[in-house]
Amino acid sequence: MSDSTGLPSSLASLDLTAQAALVRSGEVSARDLLDAVLDLLEGAGSGLGAVTDTDLAAARTAADRVDQRRRAGDELGPFAGVPITVKGSYDAAGLRTHLGRIRDSHVAASDAPVVGKARAAGAVVYGKTNVPDQLADYQTFNDDFGRTYNPWDRERTPGGSSGGASAALAAGLTALEFGSDLAGSIRMPAAWCGLFGHRPSNFVMSKMGHLPWEVDGELEPTVSTTGPLTRSARDLVLAVDVLSGPARLNAIGWRLELPATRVERLAGTRVGLWLDDEAAPIDDEQREALVAFAGRLRDAGCEVDEVRAPAGGGFAGLERYDRMQAGEIAHSVSDEEWAQALIDAAGDEPGAAFARSLTQPARVFWQDLEEQRRITKAWNALFQRVDVVLAPTVPGAAPLFDPRPTAERTLEIAGSTYSAFEIVSTWSRLANLAMLPSTVIPLGPGAISGQPLGAQLLGPYLGDRTTLRVAELLEQDGLIGFVPPPGW
What we know:
CATH topology of the largest domain: Amidase signature (AS) enzymes
Largest sheet: 8 strands, mixed
Strand content: 15-25%
Structural class: alpha+beta
Oligomer: single chain
Number of strands: 17
């Protein structure tokens, strides 16, 4: 069934690769594709709270330019004519860059490196998506732009901080989004909205041009990363190929050459199954889904073995990562915030521990960086006996939206009560400590909640092509795949 543009009725059934192929073939014009997405945005999408800003005149001009180039016989890029949105915290020329609030937002004069690469590949940027205030929540809500709803269940969070991005992607309002992952902001929303996502190995993809760091600065962060969110594994592979590589000063001489995948077929692929860590609980539904998926992997010919206590795990690993995370955050705090942190660090009030991490001696930060490299080497040794590690992404399905302050929210997991804000990101933080690539795959709806569940495929540092290839093979064999939310 098709509409007047020749597109299938449900845009959510089309991934980036398919949309670009339609435009390149001339079966659908870039302008018609953009108009179809905007019709959805103005209809059902208007109540989702995902898109905060648009520049439709510029987007239509860009789409028309793609169509003109096609008619002229020019070669079109891999993202040819595909309408996309950009997470609010990234610079996209002509659109507002924000951290979920208007007072310190700005209209970008140029693109963040990854956004520029997407445009160069033919993408049509038409809008920006919502984020929580200062990117500091697993729920996407702020006073200026409001709340973003999960298209699977409006009572639940789509995740954060890439919540607007993931909701828009799941609903068909974009075919590609850019996550930024300090403590799971690619993986949490991908899992909770039934999407694919990739948290690259550190330094594979530039994070310049992203708030709260100076958008025109020259430093790449040492802990967090940029990564794509998509509706298919094949789109992830394409996005990593297009968007990776050094930027600005580094691009003068540095080149990225990721190792080839070590896996070319599922049969014989060695999978480590990591389900238990003292600091990272999962609920029964999530555990059962992962165990069942491991069984399907065995049926497909994979060798699945349990992984226990990998390097950097447990509470000590989380403590080290949280200290490193604070060290990165320190780069972007204002002079006033820094002065207050120095005062708070000397006291014992709530927040004193974070203030002490924020103002830690440089020696401690460098010691942690050195230890991080040792942990990464230990993980790479583990990957001599397995090709990828299958692990939880989050404790379970997307939680119900909770309007209370983060410190007051709790989650019940396997019979115990936890701070929701702390526990939802534990699996992400443990993987981040080792700088590992993590490819999020959808497992389908949970047997109890009926909501999307996800898992992450971890690989050796700079082994991104292996985790991506395994996801692609799983998709090709029909073991995983994006399913549009009901009604979308």
